[in-house]
Write a structure and sequence with these properties.
alpha+beta; Immunoglobulin-like; 5-stranded mixed sheet; 3-stranded antiparallel sheet; 4 helices; signal
């Protein structure tokens, strides 16, 4: 049986695309360049309200995770960031690697005081903002930020991305604010 020419050409094109996507060998270029500088951020904390803005300075849209954590979690989050970035930088993200990446991101979200974004899309050269009214007197939090561009066909990380952790310091909710606890004046009338 003879295979029509257009089917043979299509099959060759698919094979070439798979080779380009997956790489021909273990030493090929990374599937994703880890570059935190491509995802600049600003953060502030005023009277217990945390505001964060993330700028995607790449030429591709990205999906971002953003969560707020206790300052005491900083060391553990730094270790997680290293593991996430190692997975993102793999030459080929395998099914096991994708599962590991999902598990790492899930563990970060599980330990968060607040999850501000899960797979939030930020378009190329755009900025997106989030805020959280903590209702807490804490004056410092750690932010976990994880952005990566993805292949539109397979949904795997490709191009550029990075996980990072940074601290935001400011003022917590005032102790005598309505609904807060900790002020003797709110507990004992007349003080």
């Amino acid at each position: 049986m003879r295979i029509p020419r257009h089917i043979g050409v299509a099959a060759a094109a698919v094979a070439s695309a798979v080779t380009l996507l997956m790489g021909a060998g273990a030493g090929d270029a990374s599937a994703l360049t880890v570059d935190p500088s491509k995802f600049g951020h600003t953060a502030s904390l005023t009277a217990g309200v945390l505001s964060v803005a993330v700028t995607n300075s790449t030429a591709r849209s990205v999906r971002c995770q953003l969560s707020v954590h206790r300052e005491a979690d900083s060391t553990q989050l730094t270790t997680t960031v290293d593991a996430v970035n190692a997975e993102l930088a793999r030459t080929v993200l395998t099914a096991a690697g994708a599962a590991n990446l999902a598990a790492l991101r899930s563990s970060v979200a599980a330990g968060a005081l607040a999850t501000l974004w899960t797979d939030k899309t930020i378009e190329a050269s755009a900025t997106s903002s989030a805020s959280w009214n903590s209702g807490r007197t804490d004056s410092s939090y750690v932010i976990y930020q994880d952005c990566a561009s993805t292949d539109s066909l397979l949904g795997l990380p490709t191009g550029v991305g990075a996980a990072q952790v940074y601290t935001v310091t400011g003022t917590g909710e005032p102790v005598d604010a309505p609904g807060s606890t900790g002020s003797l004046g709110s507990l004992i009338p007349g003080l």
